[in-house]
Every structure is written in C-alpha cells, then in structure tokens.
Fold:
Amino acid sequence: MARSKAYIASVGLTGIGDLWDKSLLDLAVEAARGAMKGSPRKKPDQIFVGNMFSALGASQEHLGAMTASALGMAGTPAVKVEAACSSGGSAFNVAYNLVRAGALDSALVIGVEKMRDLEPEEVSQALAMAESAEYTQFVGATFAALNGLLARYYMEELNVTRDELSAIPVIDHANAVTAAHAQFRKAITPEVVGRSQMIADPLRLFDCAPVGDGAAAALLVNDDAASGSKRKLAEVLGGKISTNEFSLYEREDMLDFKATRLAFKDALSMAGLSPGKMNFLEVHDAFSVVGALSLEAMGYSKRGNGSRDAKAGKYARGGELPINTFGGLKARGHPVGATGVYQIAEAYLQLTDQAGKNQIEGAEYAATQNVGGVDSTSAVHIFGRAA
Amino acid sequence: MARSKAYIASVGLTGIGDLWDKSLLDLAVEAARGAMKGSPRKKPDQIFVGNMFSALGASQEHLGAMTASALGMAGTPAVKVEAACSSGGSAFNVAYNLVRAGALDSALVIGVEKMRDLEPEEVSQALAMAESAEYTQFVGATFAALNGLLARYYMEELNVTRDELSAIPVIDHANAVTAAHAQFRKAITPEVVGRSQMIADPLRLFDCAPVGDGAAAALLVNDDAASGSKRKLAEVLGGKISTNEFSLYEREDMLDFKATRLAFKDALSMAGLSPGKMNFLEVHDAFSVVGALSLEAMGYSKRGNGSRDAKAGKYARGGELPINTFGGLKARGHPVGATGVYQIAEAYLQLTDQAGKNQIEGAEYAATQNVGGVDSTSAVHIFGRAA
Structure:
C-alpha cells in the first residue's frame, strides 16, 4: 500500500489554567484558529476533537459538529475521539493514519478540556471514568488512589526513594519557567515535592498533575495540502495506539506499562528508527510514578530506574535525553483530553525551531507518549524535522 | 491513491429494551463476540466504539480499551468515537475509511448505549448534550422540544397533516413485528399515533423513538482479511460524514437537512451509484419529522412530501423503496450511540439474505443514514451485495 508523507503544518495553543472567562467551545475555537492561521486551504478535510469528559465538565457532547460549525466549517466531517487521558493523542493517531493512508489530504486535530468549572470532587469522579466504574470507582478508588497504590508498590518492590520520585516533577517545573502556555511557571526543589500535602500515600501534591482548562490544535497535511504553505513543517514518522489489560488488578506485572511498550515499539518500527535516535521525549507524567514507569517501558531506563535516572540528570534540560521540554503534565498542565495534542504541538515547536527559550538545539527526532487510565491505552508518535 | 475493497464480514446484535441485567460492557462484549464469531483472525486490527453518553449512563468513559481488554484483546488499538446520535455511524465511517485506504486490514465497530439506568429526566439531559448547552439546553429546550418546534414549522410551512406525519411510525412498527432484536414488535395505526400522549407539541409519544439499552457490532475487512472467512460478505461501497450549522436557529433553512444531503451525495459519488439504484434505506427517524426531512434531503421525496409519500405507501414493505426494514429508530429502538451500527448491521443482514421474515427479496443496494443532533452531523453509507 502506497503511503503519503504526513506533516504537521501548524499548531495552536491556549494557555492552561483557570480560564473562567472561556467556554469549552471558546477554547477549542481559539486553538483551532491558531492552527489554521496561514493555511493555504481554508478548511481541513476532516476535524477530530480529542476530549474526555465534556459531558461532566460542560454538559456538552457532539463537539465535532459544534466546533466545525463555530469555525465556519459546517459541512466538514467532524467527530470526537475519546480514550480517557489519551484522547488527544488518540484523536491525532486516527487522523494521522487517515492522512498517511491517503484517505485525507488534511486533518485538524483539536484537544480540549474544561475542568475548572467542576468542583474538586467532581473532577475526581470524572477522572475515575478512565477506570472501571463497577470494579474500581464504585468501591471508592479514585484515580489518584490507584496511582498511589501503584507508587507504593513501585517504591517497595524496586527500592525507589522519596527523593528519586521527586526528580521528574522537579525537571518539569524547571522546564516550565520559560514556557508561555504552562500552568505553573515556577521552579521547585525535591524538598518542596517531599513536604507537599499528601494526596494518596505516597503521592504528594507535587507528584500529581494539576487541574486546568486548555486546548491545543495541530493541522496535519500530506504533500499536496502542504504545498503553498509558508509555515514550517515537522514530519510525522510513525504513530500507534496500544492497549493493556484495562485495570491494574488484571495485570500480571503492574510495573510493566505494556501499552506504552508496544505502542512505542510499533511507532518506531513505522518510523524506521531506533530508540537512540530520539533527541527529546514528551512523556505522560500524570503522576511522578507514571512518568518513571513510562521511561522504563520505553526502554530508556532500566526497571526501577526511571526516577533514579531523572535524579542523576539524564532527563533534565542539557542531559542525555531531555523530557517534557515545556513542563510536561506536572507543570505545563494536564487538561485531560487536550494533553496529547499539547505534547504533539510542543514536539512540533521544537522540531521547527519555534520553541524560544525552551528550544532543544539541533533536535532531529522526538517521541510523544500519551496515556489513558493507568497505561490502559497509550498513544505514541514519532516526529522528525521535515526534509 | 489505490483503494482496498471493504466488506462487512459479520455482525452481532443484542435485543433492544430494558436490559437491567446487562451492564454497558456486557452489551458491548455480547455484540462484539457475535461479530467476531467465525472470523478466521482472532483479533481485529483496531476497535472503534460508538457511544454518546456512557459518562452519564454508566459513569464510564474509556470504552475502547475497556472493551478490548474484556474481549481478551488487550494490545489492540481501541478508541471511542462520539458524534451524538450519529456516534455509531461515525465510528463506522472512521473505521471504513481506514480499511478502504489500506491502513487497516480489519476493524471491529461496536455501537453501545445504556439508557435505562437513567431516570427519564436524566435521559432528556443526556440527549440535550447533542445540542448547544449554552444556547439551547440551559434555556430549557430539550431535544424533544427542539424537534417539536421543527415539526410545527414543517407542518405549518408545508401543509403537512397529522395523519401524514403518522405514516413513518406506522411503517416502522409494521416492519418490527417480525424483527427479533426490535424493542416494540407490535403494529400500530395512524389513529394510535395521533391520539398518543403529547410529548412536545405537535409530537406525540408515537412520533418519538423510545429509550432503550442495546449494542450492535460489525466486522469490517478488506480482501486479505476476508479470505478464509465462511461468513457472507456485504460490500461497503461508499460512506461519508457531513455536518450542518450546529443549531437549528443558525440555519438559513431549517427544513433543509444539509448534512444528510451532502453526506448522501458524497457517499453515492464514492460508490459510483445513482440514488435510484437503492433498493431500501435505513433512515434516522428519531422523530417522525426527522424521518420525513431525511427522505426529502436524500431526494426521494419532494420538499414537504416525505410523510405524504410514506402515507401513500412508497416507503412501506412492498412499496417502491422500503425504509427501516427492521423497524427503524421508532420500533427497532434507538439506543443512541448504537443506532448507526444497528442500521448498518440490518443492511448487512438484508444484502446477505439473512433477514428472515424481514427479507427484502433481491435487494442489491442500500443506504443507511444516521443523524446526530437535528442533522448537525449525518453519517451516510452505501452497501451492495459482494460480487
């Protein structure tokens, strides 16, 4: 089967935070307009909206048609794609495969989430829908609780210390200081993480991604749709969604993020690249432990060494393999259904030298990893500079 | 771009109704297992779940990974696709375009909705998410109310009578009598429709599709994945999603179902067929007026004549162009996110001579039309007998 090359032609981002004055639709439209700006074609062939819980966050579904219409693109095919916290990456993956296979010349992918209109306990309830209602939620296990259990197991089983666990949040916050769209632009120390409020033992406040509103968009194009564009291109070299046994308790080895492992392997294989080629990563550190297990699943750290390697500087700016170059989920923020598209937009900004003070000089290749549930779904993409 | 042929290799259906003893996941798994039965490949390349409001109906999101895992298919890529009441047809469309373009050899499409665990007013609230929360829902316009306003306008503007409006529900109920999976297997008369309880003036109870639980699944395959299958194939010849100005009040002509009109035109063009080639239609009669306007948008009835032609027998079993051969939304039932896949499964059963007492003898071609909101989205597919 002949393949088209697929590129990101442009991106649009809103800042992340308590955006009380902007509706869900406002956010989606703002990001989308940013991504369409300068496009030689006024409309994409199809719109994909990544979102997890607009039903609870904004009493709204049907975001595809709603966004298309608000953009003055009524007529254009439009759908929402949902895969919990990996909704953004999954929406991008569906769109990418359609462009790559030649079914679409262009696709506009929008990730959006409105979280701050909910009370904190409602946010917990919304996030818990990423896991089984009947076997997890209804017995009182919030999403933070599940990740707390996982973190305890990880620390006990593999002798990971509190200080090590704090290393990824510290890197994230350091990187966010100069990131205009980040929710928390303030550096922190391991001590700050270690003495912050306990959320779900052993996870503390600064182990956990914050709650915020935001939207990101990316315009995917093939060679035909790219021609005439004056905007810089980054190439999408591979991308895959994979899944794991849904709930933690169903898995033989809870510390093996199988969905991430398989998705990364397949995405690299599509790209024809080895893991060592990556110059930076955007990893899904919804909780510090999730960031560590993700780096282990991708093979960059040995089992039990994800946080340890972070503490040793491997993943810091200027280290061997920088991660979360604009702050990751912890500091850039984690507007759930939008997060995967933020990661992808950040990879685009880096690979087109538009990352400003956050620029990783000379980066040629990058991977983004967006997880739904506790690695129940993982959507991984590989990007490179356009030839 | 080279295209693969795409077929439906098999389908699975649950009965529709008050399925108190089955969870959302039970329903999805039952339909999926039905569709996978006899497949020479144990797993599809990807799973697509069409669903609108599992967040409200079952406190559950992340149905893709959840269903994959429950089917013993952890690892398989899986996402949910949502486009309000057209979620099922839209999920199928995304999967179909990926198979047709050669990105996937096979895809399992599952439509599922659990409505009956909600109180009636909660169902109204869930359905209202198909329309703008801020401009429609929050001022108290339920989905039935909007369709009531549309029906009144339709009747006044185009001189449509109460008896004419009753004709499509009557056809639906007649067809459902022998349909094993239908929710209401009982024939009705125009008088029954006309004297049933008023829901949203002028729409009465029997103008409105019922509330029910159900799931349907279809296995899409290309030639490679079809080889070795002993199950009968129907070919997918074309399929398109289109959108309209989102809310009724934004449209120049509320009686023009533009999304359906455009999607049908494009789907026919992909199939290389004229409208006259269709031997039956599955149309989205969520309300009697929606069925009538759909037939007008597809060009089978002149403006204002959709219900009138139905009354004259054109769309009845044995008429010129039978519709809703297993009862349509009104009598087969309308488990929202599943409906589009039920329609497609029914087209498959007809075109492979497995429709039993509902068989349309010698049918060669069919179209299915699945609407989200009041034609804010429309997903139309064209099917034919496999050569």
